Amino acid sequence: MSDLLVRVGHVAAVLAVVLVAAYLGRRAARAARQPEVIGEILAGILVVPAVLAIGGPDGLARVLPGDVVGPLKTLGQVGLVLFLVGVAHELRHGKSGLGAKAVGWVTAGSFVPALLAGLGMAAWVLLAADPDLRGTAPAPALVLMVAVALSVTAVPVLARILEDRRMVDSPSGKLSMAAAVVTDSVAWVLLVVAVGISGGVLVSLALLAVGVAVTVVGRILLRGKTPMAAAERFPKSTGLAVSALALLLAFQFEHWGLTAVFGAFVVGLALPAGPWTTVVRPVTNLGRLLVPVFFVVAGMGVANAPRAAVPWAAILIALALAVVGKIGGGYLGTRLAGQDRRTALTVGVLMNTRGLTEIVVLQAGYSAGLLSVQLFLALVVMALVTTAMTGPLLSLIERRARVSAAATRELVPDLPGGRP
Protein backbone atom coordinates (compact mmCIF):
# COMPACT_ATOMS: atom_id res chain seq x y z
CA MET A 1 0.00 0.00 0.00
CA SER A 2 2.80 2.39 0.92
CA ASP A 3 4.59 1.63 -2.36
CA LEU A 4 1.41 2.46 -4.27
CA LEU A 5 1.06 5.76 -2.43
CA VAL A 6 4.69 6.62 -3.15
CA ARG A 7 4.20 5.83 -6.83
CA VAL A 8 1.01 7.90 -7.02
CA GLY A 9 2.78 10.79 -5.30
CA HIS A 10 5.70 10.50 -7.74
CA VAL A 11 3.35 10.59 -10.74
CA ALA A 12 1.48 13.57 -9.26
CA ALA A 13 4.75 15.44 -8.66
CA VAL A 14 5.95 14.87 -12.23
CA LEU A 15 2.53 15.86 -13.56
CA ALA A 16 2.66 19.10 -11.57
CA VAL A 17 6.12 19.90 -12.95
CA VAL A 18 4.93 19.22 -16.50
CA LEU A 19 1.88 21.47 -16.11
CA VAL A 20 4.01 24.27 -14.65
CA ALA A 21 6.51 23.89 -17.51
CA ALA A 22 3.63 24.06 -20.00
CA TYR A 23 2.32 27.22 -18.34
CA LEU A 24 5.76 28.85 -18.50
CA GLY A 25 6.08 27.73 -22.11
CA ARG A 26 2.77 29.39 -22.97
CA ARG A 27 3.85 32.62 -21.27
CA ALA A 28 7.19 32.59 -23.11
CA ALA A 29 5.49 31.95 -26.46
CA ARG A 30 3.01 34.76 -25.84
CA ALA A 31 5.87 37.12 -25.00
CA ALA A 32 7.58 36.13 -28.25
CA ARG A 33 4.30 36.69 -30.16
CA GLN A 34 4.11 33.02 -31.08
CA PRO A 35 1.13 30.62 -30.80
CA GLU A 36 0.95 29.30 -27.23
CA VAL A 37 1.09 25.72 -28.47
CA ILE A 38 4.69 26.33 -29.62
CA GLY A 39 5.67 27.00 -26.00
CA GLU A 40 3.72 23.97 -24.78
CA ILE A 41 5.33 21.67 -27.32
CA LEU A 42 8.86 22.91 -26.64
CA ALA A 43 8.38 22.81 -22.86
CA GLY A 44 7.04 19.27 -22.97
CA ILE A 45 9.60 17.93 -25.41
CA LEU A 46 12.54 19.55 -23.58
CA VAL A 47 11.63 18.28 -20.09
CA VAL A 48 13.30 14.91 -20.62
CA PRO A 49 16.47 16.24 -22.35
CA ALA A 50 16.79 18.85 -19.56
CA VAL A 51 16.63 16.17 -16.84
CA LEU A 52 19.07 14.06 -18.83
CA ALA A 53 21.51 16.97 -19.20
CA ILE A 54 21.37 17.84 -15.49
CA GLY A 55 21.29 14.40 -13.87
CA GLY A 56 22.52 12.09 -16.59
CA PRO A 57 20.97 8.68 -17.29
CA ASP A 58 20.90 7.82 -13.57
CA GLY A 59 19.07 11.05 -12.74
CA LEU A 60 16.56 10.44 -15.53
CA ALA A 61 15.97 6.91 -14.24
CA ARG A 62 15.24 8.28 -10.76
CA VAL A 63 12.95 11.07 -11.98
CA LEU A 64 11.16 8.98 -14.63
CA PRO A 65 11.38 5.30 -13.70
CA GLY A 66 9.39 2.76 -15.68
CA ASP A 67 6.55 2.56 -13.15
CA VAL A 68 6.06 6.34 -13.50
CA VAL A 69 6.48 6.57 -17.28
CA GLY A 70 3.64 4.08 -17.83
CA PRO A 71 0.97 6.15 -16.02
CA LEU A 72 2.30 9.34 -17.62
CA LYS A 73 2.00 7.79 -21.07
CA THR A 74 -1.59 6.80 -20.31
CA LEU A 75 -2.40 10.31 -19.04
CA GLY A 76 -0.90 11.81 -22.18
CA GLN A 77 -2.98 9.53 -24.38
CA VAL A 78 -6.12 10.35 -22.39
CA GLY A 79 -5.46 14.07 -22.85
CA LEU A 80 -4.81 13.61 -26.55
CA VAL A 81 -7.99 11.60 -27.13
CA LEU A 82 -10.20 14.07 -25.26
CA PHE A 83 -8.63 17.01 -27.06
CA LEU A 84 -9.10 15.40 -30.47
CA VAL A 85 -12.81 14.82 -29.80
CA GLY A 86 -13.18 18.60 -29.90
CA VAL A 87 -10.95 18.92 -32.95
CA ALA A 88 -13.05 16.38 -34.86
CA HIS A 89 -16.26 18.11 -33.79
CA GLU A 90 -14.86 21.41 -35.07
CA LEU A 91 -13.81 19.83 -38.36
CA ARG A 92 -17.31 18.45 -38.89
CA HIS A 93 -19.20 21.65 -38.13
CA GLY A 94 -16.82 24.37 -39.31
CA LYS A 95 -18.27 26.51 -42.11
CA SER A 96 -16.58 29.03 -44.38
CA GLY A 97 -19.49 30.90 -45.95
CA LEU A 98 -17.62 30.82 -49.27
CA GLY A 99 -18.37 29.22 -52.60
CA ALA A 100 -17.50 25.56 -53.09
CA LYS A 101 -15.40 26.35 -56.17
CA ALA A 102 -13.14 28.80 -54.33
CA VAL A 103 -12.72 26.47 -51.37
CA GLY A 104 -12.04 23.59 -53.75
CA TRP A 105 -9.20 25.42 -55.51
CA VAL A 106 -7.58 26.48 -52.23
CA THR A 107 -7.94 22.99 -50.78
CA ALA A 108 -6.41 21.36 -53.84
CA GLY A 109 -3.59 23.89 -53.94
CA SER A 110 -2.71 23.52 -50.26
CA PHE A 111 -3.02 19.73 -50.17
CA VAL A 112 -1.92 18.17 -53.46
CA PRO A 113 1.49 19.93 -53.83
CA ALA A 114 2.23 19.30 -50.14
CA LEU A 115 1.32 15.64 -50.55
CA LEU A 116 3.60 15.40 -53.60
CA ALA A 117 6.37 17.12 -51.64
CA GLY A 118 5.96 14.45 -48.97
CA LEU A 119 6.18 11.72 -51.59
CA GLY A 120 9.38 13.34 -52.84
CA MET A 121 10.92 13.34 -49.39
CA ALA A 122 9.86 9.75 -48.83
CA ALA A 123 11.58 8.79 -52.10
CA TRP A 124 14.77 10.48 -50.89
CA VAL A 125 14.57 8.66 -47.55
CA LEU A 126 14.10 5.31 -49.28
CA LEU A 127 16.65 5.73 -52.07
CA ALA A 128 19.41 8.04 -50.90
CA ALA A 129 19.29 8.56 -47.13
CA ASP A 130 21.14 6.73 -44.39
CA PRO A 131 19.56 3.36 -43.44
CA ASP A 132 19.20 4.55 -39.84
CA LEU A 133 16.98 7.39 -41.07
CA ARG A 134 14.92 5.02 -43.20
CA GLY A 135 14.15 2.62 -40.35
CA THR A 136 12.44 -0.73 -40.77
CA ALA A 137 8.88 0.28 -41.72
CA PRO A 138 7.26 -1.19 -44.85
CA ALA A 139 7.94 1.11 -47.80
CA PRO A 140 4.26 1.83 -48.62
CA ALA A 141 3.50 2.75 -45.00
CA LEU A 142 6.59 4.98 -44.77
CA VAL A 143 5.77 6.77 -48.03
CA LEU A 144 2.19 7.45 -46.99
CA MET A 145 3.28 8.51 -43.49
CA VAL A 146 5.77 11.11 -44.73
CA ALA A 147 3.31 12.38 -47.35
CA VAL A 148 0.69 12.92 -44.63
CA ALA A 149 3.24 14.60 -42.38
CA LEU A 150 3.99 17.28 -44.97
CA SER A 151 0.37 17.86 -45.96
CA VAL A 152 -1.15 18.55 -42.51
CA THR A 153 -2.36 21.96 -41.31
CA ALA A 154 -3.18 22.48 -37.62
CA VAL A 155 -6.82 23.59 -37.47
CA PRO A 156 -6.79 24.44 -33.71
CA VAL A 157 -3.63 26.56 -33.98
CA LEU A 158 -4.86 28.17 -37.19
CA ALA A 159 -8.14 29.10 -35.52
CA ARG A 160 -6.29 30.69 -32.61
CA ILE A 161 -4.02 32.71 -34.94
CA LEU A 162 -7.01 33.98 -36.91
CA GLU A 163 -8.76 34.98 -33.71
CA ASP A 164 -5.72 36.73 -32.24
CA ARG A 165 -5.15 38.69 -35.45
CA ARG A 166 -8.85 39.41 -36.03
CA MET A 167 -8.78 37.63 -39.38
CA VAL A 168 -11.66 35.21 -38.79
CA ASP A 169 -14.04 37.04 -41.12
CA SER A 170 -11.43 38.04 -43.72
CA PRO A 171 -11.32 36.27 -47.13
CA SER A 172 -7.92 34.78 -46.31
CA GLY A 173 -9.13 33.62 -42.90
CA LYS A 174 -12.28 31.97 -44.24
CA LEU A 175 -10.49 30.32 -47.16
CA SER A 176 -7.61 28.98 -45.06
CA MET A 177 -9.90 27.59 -42.35
CA ALA A 178 -12.22 25.89 -44.87
CA ALA A 179 -9.26 24.38 -46.75
CA ALA A 180 -7.57 23.27 -43.52
CA VAL A 181 -10.72 21.47 -42.38
CA VAL A 182 -10.90 19.47 -45.62
CA THR A 183 -7.17 18.71 -45.89
CA ASP A 184 -6.91 17.60 -42.28
CA SER A 185 -9.97 15.38 -42.63
CA VAL A 186 -8.32 13.60 -45.55
CA ALA A 187 -4.94 13.52 -43.78
CA TRP A 188 -6.39 11.80 -40.71
CA VAL A 189 -7.90 9.08 -42.88
CA LEU A 190 -4.58 8.58 -44.68
CA LEU A 191 -2.80 8.42 -41.32
CA VAL A 192 -5.10 5.63 -40.19
CA VAL A 193 -4.41 3.74 -43.42
CA ALA A 194 -0.63 4.25 -43.04
CA VAL A 195 -0.65 2.95 -39.46
CA GLY A 196 -2.89 0.06 -40.42
CA ILE A 197 -0.79 -1.13 -43.37
CA SER A 198 1.62 -2.94 -41.05
CA GLY A 199 -1.33 -4.89 -39.64
CA GLY A 200 -2.85 -5.64 -43.05
CA VAL A 201 -4.65 -3.43 -45.55
CA LEU A 202 -7.87 -5.45 -45.50
CA VAL A 203 -8.05 -5.30 -41.71
CA SER A 204 -7.47 -1.54 -41.80
CA LEU A 205 -10.19 -1.02 -44.40
CA ALA A 206 -12.61 -3.15 -42.38
CA LEU A 207 -11.90 -1.12 -39.23
CA LEU A 208 -12.34 2.11 -41.18
CA ALA A 209 -15.72 0.86 -42.34
CA VAL A 210 -16.64 0.04 -38.73
CA GLY A 211 -15.63 3.55 -37.67
CA VAL A 212 -17.68 5.15 -40.43
CA ALA A 213 -20.69 3.03 -39.49
CA VAL A 214 -20.40 3.98 -35.82
CA THR A 215 -20.16 7.65 -36.81
CA VAL A 216 -23.24 7.55 -39.05
CA VAL A 217 -25.37 5.57 -36.59
CA GLY A 218 -24.19 7.76 -33.72
CA ARG A 219 -25.21 10.93 -35.51
CA ILE A 220 -28.67 9.54 -36.24
CA LEU A 221 -29.23 8.43 -32.64
CA LEU A 222 -27.80 11.55 -30.98
CA ARG A 223 -30.07 13.81 -33.04
CA GLY A 224 -33.09 12.32 -31.28
CA LYS A 225 -35.14 14.39 -28.85
CA THR A 226 -34.08 12.47 -25.74
CA PRO A 227 -30.27 12.68 -26.32
CA MET A 228 -30.52 16.35 -27.34
CA ALA A 229 -32.54 17.12 -24.21
CA ALA A 230 -30.05 15.24 -22.01
CA ALA A 231 -27.15 17.15 -23.56
CA GLU A 232 -28.93 20.44 -22.89
CA ARG A 233 -30.10 19.68 -19.33
CA PHE A 234 -27.13 17.64 -18.05
CA PRO A 235 -24.04 18.83 -19.96
CA LYS A 236 -21.54 17.72 -17.29
CA SER A 237 -22.90 14.18 -16.95
CA THR A 238 -23.22 13.89 -20.72
CA GLY A 239 -19.66 15.16 -21.09
CA LEU A 240 -18.41 12.39 -18.77
CA ALA A 241 -20.25 9.83 -20.87
CA VAL A 242 -18.77 11.24 -24.08
CA SER A 243 -15.28 11.15 -22.53
CA ALA A 244 -15.68 7.54 -21.42
CA LEU A 245 -16.97 6.46 -24.83
CA ALA A 246 -14.15 8.27 -26.65
CA LEU A 247 -11.50 6.64 -24.45
CA LEU A 248 -13.10 3.22 -24.83
CA LEU A 249 -13.23 3.44 -28.62
CA ALA A 250 -9.77 5.01 -28.90
CA PHE A 251 -7.99 2.32 -26.92
CA GLN A 252 -10.05 -0.43 -28.57
CA PHE A 253 -9.11 0.73 -32.07
CA GLU A 254 -5.49 0.95 -30.94
CA HIS A 255 -5.74 -2.62 -29.64
CA TRP A 256 -7.04 -3.67 -33.06
CA GLY A 257 -3.97 -2.18 -34.75
CA LEU A 258 -5.09 1.35 -35.64
CA THR A 259 -4.16 4.58 -33.89
CA ALA A 260 -6.14 5.81 -30.88
CA VAL A 261 -6.67 9.02 -32.85
CA PHE A 262 -9.24 7.21 -34.98
CA GLY A 263 -11.46 6.37 -32.02
CA ALA A 264 -11.43 9.99 -30.86
CA PHE A 265 -12.41 11.16 -34.32
CA VAL A 266 -15.25 8.65 -34.58
CA VAL A 267 -16.83 10.14 -31.43
CA GLY A 268 -16.11 13.77 -32.37
CA LEU A 269 -17.61 13.37 -35.83
CA ALA A 270 -20.65 11.57 -34.48
CA LEU A 271 -21.66 14.42 -32.16
CA PRO A 272 -24.22 16.79 -33.75
CA ALA A 273 -24.17 20.56 -33.37
CA GLY A 274 -26.43 22.49 -30.99
CA PRO A 275 -26.22 21.55 -27.29
CA TRP A 276 -23.56 18.94 -28.02
CA THR A 277 -21.10 21.75 -28.69
CA THR A 278 -21.54 22.85 -25.07
CA VAL A 279 -20.94 19.26 -23.97
CA VAL A 280 -17.75 18.93 -26.01
CA ARG A 281 -16.13 22.16 -24.81
CA PRO A 282 -15.13 21.02 -21.26
CA VAL A 283 -14.04 17.65 -22.66
CA THR A 284 -11.69 19.45 -25.03
CA ASN A 285 -10.42 21.77 -22.29
CA LEU A 286 -9.55 18.83 -20.03
CA GLY A 287 -7.74 17.19 -22.90
CA ARG A 288 -5.85 20.40 -23.64
CA LEU A 289 -4.73 20.52 -19.99
CA LEU A 290 -3.23 17.02 -20.19
CA VAL A 291 -1.75 17.24 -23.70
CA PRO A 292 1.64 18.58 -22.41
CA VAL A 293 2.13 15.17 -20.77
CA PHE A 294 1.86 13.70 -24.26
CA PHE A 295 4.71 16.00 -25.34
CA VAL A 296 6.89 14.69 -22.50
CA VAL A 297 6.44 11.15 -23.78
CA ALA A 298 7.35 12.40 -27.25
CA GLY A 299 10.40 14.09 -25.74
CA MET A 300 11.62 10.76 -24.40
CA GLY A 301 11.86 9.50 -27.98
CA VAL A 302 13.75 12.63 -29.04
CA ALA A 303 16.12 12.31 -26.08
CA ASN A 304 17.07 8.80 -27.17
CA ALA A 305 18.54 10.12 -30.44
CA PRO A 306 22.32 10.49 -30.08
CA ARG A 307 23.66 13.98 -30.77
CA ALA A 308 25.95 12.74 -33.51
CA ALA A 309 22.98 11.34 -35.38
CA VAL A 310 20.96 14.58 -35.64
CA PRO A 311 19.74 14.40 -39.25
CA TRP A 312 20.56 17.90 -40.47
CA ALA A 313 20.10 17.02 -44.14
CA ALA A 314 16.65 15.55 -43.44
CA ILE A 315 15.69 18.62 -41.40
CA LEU A 316 16.66 21.02 -44.20
CA ILE A 317 14.98 18.94 -46.91
CA ALA A 318 11.80 18.58 -44.84
CA LEU A 319 11.71 22.33 -44.16
CA ALA A 320 12.25 23.28 -47.80
CA LEU A 321 9.65 20.85 -49.14
CA ALA A 322 7.14 21.74 -46.41
CA VAL A 323 7.36 25.46 -47.11
CA VAL A 324 7.23 25.08 -50.88
CA GLY A 325 4.36 22.60 -50.74
CA LYS A 326 2.15 24.60 -48.38
CA ILE A 327 2.99 28.26 -49.05
CA GLY A 328 3.59 27.78 -52.78
CA GLY A 329 0.66 25.42 -53.24
CA GLY A 330 -1.67 27.55 -51.10
CA TYR A 331 -0.69 30.65 -53.08
CA LEU A 332 -1.33 28.92 -56.42
CA GLY A 333 -4.67 27.49 -55.33
CA THR A 334 -5.89 30.83 -53.98
CA ARG A 335 -4.90 32.64 -57.15
CA LEU A 336 -6.78 30.05 -59.20
CA ALA A 337 -9.75 30.75 -56.93
CA GLY A 338 -9.72 34.35 -58.20
CA GLN A 339 -8.17 36.07 -55.15
CA ASP A 340 -5.53 38.82 -55.22
CA ARG A 341 -1.85 38.23 -54.56
CA ARG A 342 -1.86 39.46 -50.97
CA THR A 343 -4.76 37.17 -50.02
CA ALA A 344 -3.11 34.26 -51.83
CA LEU A 345 0.19 34.75 -50.02
CA THR A 346 -1.59 35.12 -46.67
CA VAL A 347 -3.51 31.88 -47.24
CA GLY A 348 -0.30 30.06 -48.15
CA VAL A 349 1.40 31.23 -44.96
CA LEU A 350 -1.60 30.26 -42.83
CA MET A 351 -1.78 26.79 -44.38
CA ASN A 352 1.89 26.29 -43.45
CA THR A 353 0.88 26.21 -39.76
CA ARG A 354 1.27 22.66 -38.43
CA GLY A 355 1.55 22.90 -34.64
CA LEU A 356 -0.05 20.30 -32.38
CA THR A 357 -1.78 18.41 -35.20
CA GLU A 358 1.55 17.59 -36.81
CA ILE A 359 3.09 16.42 -33.53
CA VAL A 360 0.12 14.10 -32.98
CA VAL A 361 0.51 12.68 -36.48
CA LEU A 362 4.25 12.18 -36.01
CA GLN A 363 3.87 10.57 -32.59
CA ALA A 364 1.29 8.17 -34.01
CA GLY A 365 3.70 7.22 -36.79
CA TYR A 366 6.62 6.90 -34.39
CA SER A 367 4.65 4.76 -31.93
CA ALA A 368 3.56 2.47 -34.79
CA GLY A 369 7.18 2.02 -35.89
CA LEU A 370 6.74 3.87 -39.18
CA LEU A 371 9.25 6.62 -38.36
CA SER A 372 12.78 6.14 -37.08
CA VAL A 373 13.95 8.33 -34.19
CA GLN A 374 16.02 10.46 -36.56
CA LEU A 375 13.21 10.98 -39.06
CA PHE A 376 10.77 11.70 -36.23
CA LEU A 377 13.16 14.34 -34.88
CA ALA A 378 13.60 15.94 -38.32
CA LEU A 379 9.86 16.21 -38.86
CA VAL A 380 9.25 17.55 -35.34
CA VAL A 381 11.74 20.35 -36.01
CA MET A 382 10.01 21.03 -39.33
CA ALA A 383 6.64 21.26 -37.58
CA LEU A 384 7.92 23.71 -34.96
CA VAL A 385 9.78 25.93 -37.43
CA THR A 386 6.95 26.15 -39.96
CA THR A 387 4.47 27.01 -37.20
CA ALA A 388 6.82 29.61 -35.72
CA MET A 389 7.20 31.19 -39.18
CA THR A 390 3.50 32.00 -39.42
CA GLY A 391 3.36 35.05 -37.14
CA PRO A 392 6.46 36.84 -38.49
CA LEU A 393 5.47 36.18 -42.12
CA LEU A 394 1.94 37.50 -41.55
CA SER A 395 3.39 40.63 -39.93
CA LEU A 396 5.73 41.07 -42.91
CA ILE A 397 2.82 40.78 -45.36
CA GLU A 398 0.79 43.34 -43.39
CA ARG A 399 3.75 45.72 -43.19
CA ARG A 400 4.41 45.52 -46.92
CA ALA A 401 0.71 46.12 -47.60
CA ARG A 402 0.77 49.28 -45.45
CA VAL A 403 3.92 50.56 -47.18
CA SER A 404 2.40 49.87 -50.59
CA ALA A 405 -0.84 51.65 -49.65
CA ALA A 406 1.08 54.65 -48.34
CA ALA A 407 3.17 54.84 -51.52
CA THR A 408 0.01 54.68 -53.63
CA ARG A 409 -1.55 57.56 -51.71
CA GLU A 410 1.57 59.68 -52.25
CA LEU A 411 1.69 58.95 -55.99
CA VAL A 412 -2.02 59.45 -56.69
CA PRO A 413 -3.21 62.96 -55.69
CA ASP A 414 -6.69 63.47 -54.31
CA LEU A 415 -9.21 64.56 -56.94
CA PRO A 416 -12.04 67.05 -56.34
CA GLY A 417 -14.83 65.53 -54.28
CA GLY A 418 -12.40 63.61 -52.03
CA ARG A 419 -12.02 60.66 -54.43
CA PRO A 420 -8.57 59.46 -55.49
Automatic annotation (TrEMBL):
UniProt KW keywords: Ion transport, Membrane, Transmembrane, Transmembrane helix, Transport
Protein topology in the membrane: Multi-pass membrane protein
Compartment(s): Membrane
Domain Cation/H+ exchanger transmembrane: 19-394
UniProt record, GO biological process: proton transmembrane transport
A Gene Ontology term for the protein's cellular component: membrane
Keyword Hydrolase: no
Transmembrane stretches, start-end: 6-25, 37-54, 74-91, 103-127, 139-163, 175-195, 201-222, 234-253, 259-279, 286-303, 309-332, 344-366, 372-394
One GO MF term: antiporter activity
Coiled coil stretches, renumbered: none
Name of the featured protein: Cation/H+ antiporter
